[in-house]
Structures are given as structure tokens and as C-alpha cells.
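hiii so my PI (J.) wants the whole complex modelled not just the main chain, which honestly fair. so below is everything: two entries, each one labled with what it is. i double checked the lines twice but i was tired so who knows lol
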Amino acid sequence: MIFFDFDYERADTLEGAVALLARMPGSARALAGGTDLLPGMRMENIKPGLLVSLGAIEPHEPELLADGSLRIDALSRLSSLENSSLLRSKVPMLAESAHVVGGNQIRQMGTLGGNLCQETRCMQLDQKHDYQFVAPCFKRGGDCCYPFPRNKHNVCWSVYMSDIAPALIALDAEVEILGQAGSRRIRVEALFTGNGLTPLSLGQAELLRAVVVPPAPRGFAWGFHKSTVRGGLEFGMAVIAVALHLAEDGNTCADARIVIGAVREGPARATAAERSLKGAVLDGKRLAQAAAEAAKEISPLPHHGFTKRHLTDNIRVYLRRTLAQAVERAGGPGRSS
Amino acid sequence: MEMSASDAARAGIAAGTKSRTRLISLCVNGEWHEVAVKPRNMLVEVIRDTIGLTGTKASCESGTCGACTVLVEGRPVLGCITLAVECDGKQVQTVEGLAEGEKLSAIQEAFLDQGAVQCGFCTPGMLMSATALLRRNPKPTREDINKALEGNLCRCTGYNAIVDAVLQVSGQGGVEPVME
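here's the output for the full assembly
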């Protein structure tokens, strides 16, 4: 049940949707699966004056481009991604990351673009008004982060929880964005501002059109892990996506991308840990060192009852195991110890 | 129909405008209904309050418990976070649409056999999720069932009896029915 009125228009094309969104800058929102937007409206965290429905626009099937990269329509349902044999074979990490989102109904309804454009979350913010604090927090227009009133820079400490974004960043994917001036393409990393109040770098009347994943280089290996309490139907306490490129010998790391999600205002690259792996032989000790390095550099925000200490430990342990999983997939020497 | 920007302006889209009521058609369990809805009305509200089919339950109303699960065009969706206007012209199946007259569907019988119902509040949603699974995959493994039902919370049964019921209806056992 939503307690305020808003208007509703249905777009037939993405271009039409952009034109409709541009009519009410700041107050119009695009509605795809609605699994994040509508609960947010119910909590009155978001109060748009107009919803532009994309429900009448049929997504294209994932398409293999001439250069070997894969173009996936942003309106693809998550269930179609997890069950796509093309995705399972070409980008298994993306299929896996779609598979762990929410529950079955959420994946049947939610879209790839919607998952990437989800709001940042905070246990205190995502509650009904009755249970909220006496005064509004930053997200509701106030001047304090009530759950963490003395946080270091006095900013909003809400956390971006997408499971798919870390996988896409590890895969070095790009997003195609459609706006009034036409379309532009940016790397998925550039979609995130690192600011909890305005987590996305999208303009007012911009929509995601597609995600483009480049072809996997030789010696590619991946690992993915979502830490949860129950193992289903919940947001992650930390999401770990790892992409390794192994050199010809199969033991040495030519390149590494490590992305940790659900612990900060946007997905975070563990660049120091990546550097420590490059050129190194990936044995268990090296992987453990890299995981410890990443846990130190990420500096997770406490969220949903998990302390910073807990999340740091979680990253250290599960990143080591996820790296070992990637190496094992590639048939290398790494073992979890 | 694609609207140009000026069309949108004529339709009265401006901050503070009260949304207009619209007439939508829903085919619920094979019967077409014309209902007047505001954009903010959710599918579960329309099914329960306007059409009067109260088998579907509204529980958390924020998309976390699955009690309101109905099938829209055969897909299990959460009625509490689906706008009714989004379902205009679509086929909706609710728990009332499972039985044929007095004869319960196989999955409903299996729920009774296995004692998969306690307080019953999650049951309509469980049945719809299970129905969607069995249509897509008539021989699901226990793991498939867990994954398909992960979006439905049950505070009573501990889930095992529910999973057994789905296994029973797929002809893969489950426990022997306890009741005569």
C-alpha cells in the first residue's frame, strides 16, 4: 500500500520514456520491475510525482556482438539471466550473481537495469515512518545520520547492495545510457558516485539501455560469493566478485580484478590487493595475503547490525576462499587453507 | 501508444496533481473484471478488496514475505509490490484458481497429505510458487524446490513438510501421507 498519489504513464519505447521523465525533472521515476522502487515509495523514502512505466517495452534477447562481447538488455528479467544458457556459458559470473538476488519472485519481476539503479539501503531508513526517528536523517532531508551520528565525515552511511554490480565491474563491463542527447557508454564503475545520498551518476532523464560485457581473455577465472545470514531472500552482508587472468603457465597472475559490494556507498575495488597479485604465483599464502590486504583497504561501513570488525573479517576470510575458488576453477595451485 | 512531451503536459502531469482513476481489465482465474484503480493501488489490494478474492494474503506489504504471490501471465510475482495498472489486460491466477470446483489440485492435496499447512497464512503464496515451479519443471530436485520457494516465508512449518509436498506431487516420494 502506498499512501500518496502519483501519476502514471506507460512508455512504448525507451526514447518515449526519456521524454516523459524529462517533463518532471526531479520528480519522475522510471518503473521497471518495481521491486526496489515500490517498497521505497511505501516507506516514503522516495516520493515521485510521476512513474513512467517501462513494462510495455519487451527486452531484447542477449546478443553476441562481432567482437565477442555480449550485449544484454537492461530490461532483461533477472530470472531470464540466471536461466540463460548463453549467459551461463559466456559469463557464468553474471548468471550466478543474478541467481543470488532476492527470492524467486523478486528475480521474476526485477530487471538488470533496475538492480543496478537500486537505492542505497540502511536498516534504520528502510522502515515505516512510525518506527523512524523523531527527526529525519540525511536521506529524508535532515541534517544527521541517526544510526551513526558521529560518523567520521558526518555523511549518510547508507550502503549500495546490488549483487550484480560487483560482478559486472570485475568483468570490466560497460553500460549504455540513454538520455535526451542520445546514448553514451560508460564503464560500470563510473555509474557510482560513492555518495550515499546520490549513489548513481545518472542524470534526471537518463535510463540504462544495455550492459555490454567484453569477451573473457585466455586464462580467465572467476569467483563469486555473497555472504548472508539465511542463505536466501536477503541482501548481502558482503558480496565478493573476483576475476583473474592467468598467464600461459597457468600459475602466474597476469591481471586481477577484485570487487567488494554491499559494504559501502558503491561497489569498491580492492586495488592494492589486485596489485599484490599481479605477476605473482597464486599459491595459498599469496591469496591469503591479498585477502588480508583487501579487508584492510576496503574499510566497510557498518550496516544492518554488522559491525565494521565483523565485515572486515568476513571479507578477509571469504575473499581468500573466493580467490582460491577462482584459481581452482582454472586448475591452478591455489588452495584454501 | 507513445506519448510525446506535449501530450504528457495536456494529460495534466504536474507536481501536486491528483492522479486520475483509470479503468483496467484483469482476467483473474479465467474471468475478466473491469476495475477502476488509482496508479497507487497494488494488485493485491485490487484482488482482495475490489474483486473480493481474499485467498491471496497481504502480509509484509513490502515484498519480503511472499504471502501475496500470484501468477501474472504464469510468472510468480508479489502482489504487494506490483501496481494494478501494470497488469492491465493480463492473466492473473490466484489460489482460488487452483481447484476445479470441489476438486483440489494435486499440489493442494499434497499439502494436506504432508501436513504442510499450519496457520495457513503463507499457504496461498506457497501454493502459487510451487505451482509455477511444477509447470516449469515437473521433476524438481529438493534444491530446485528450496530455490523456487526461497521467496516465501513460513513461521510455522519449518519448511520440510512443504518441500515434501512438492516432492510428492512430482512423483518423487516425499514422506508417506500420515493422514488416512
